[in-house]
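Page 42, continued from yesterday. The earlier attempt failed because a stray header line got pasted into the input along with the sequence. Redoing it now with the clean sequence only.
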Amino acid sequence: MRQSISLSLVSALALAGFTALPAFAQANDSAYVRVQDNCTHRQAEDEPVFYADCAGYGDWTVHIVAGEHGAAVAYSDRGIEAQWRQGPPRSGVFQDLGEVMEWRLTPSGEAFATIYRSIFTGFEPGDGGQYLTVSALRPDGEPGACHVAYVEAAQQPGANQIARDVADYLAAGWQCGVDEPVVFDLDSEMDVLTVAAQRRPGH
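This time it went through. Structure tokens are written below.
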């Protein structure tokens, strides 16, 4: 079950003993890739499902599967099925993916997380919503990537920065296959830094 964890700024940082933020987070950078511009496509034989293998950042490949009711994303050639089972909370019937994917980079230029937008629509005007999915990348892991958090982006101010904070403060220590993705929305009770503080050893 996914945790629904929140966004309020919390004085509990002091109570949790979170006195300093990791210095590396301040030096990270972003690269932006129009993922679907450079893809190899194929179609399933017996069903209306389409697959695309797309150029990501550096050596990373982005795998996209799309069908009648939406699309899903996975990374690398390992753990694809596990990654496709993950996704943001359904706030509509159909899911489209944003055109641009943000890749979070270490100071040395190595990609360690991605952020992409899922856009849900419905049968009636006003149905649906948007989420930013933050994924941790594990070049040598199994699976090769996993979801860290889903940031509600249609109504929540500063959603893009919240997603970057998730990448910078949570993705590196995320245990793919063990930790469940977190939802950050207007109803959440903790912000990203509070979650990071609680995940520190001894807390």
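Notes: The CA atoms of residues 6 and 64 lie 29 Å apart.
Reminder to self: strip header lines before submitting.
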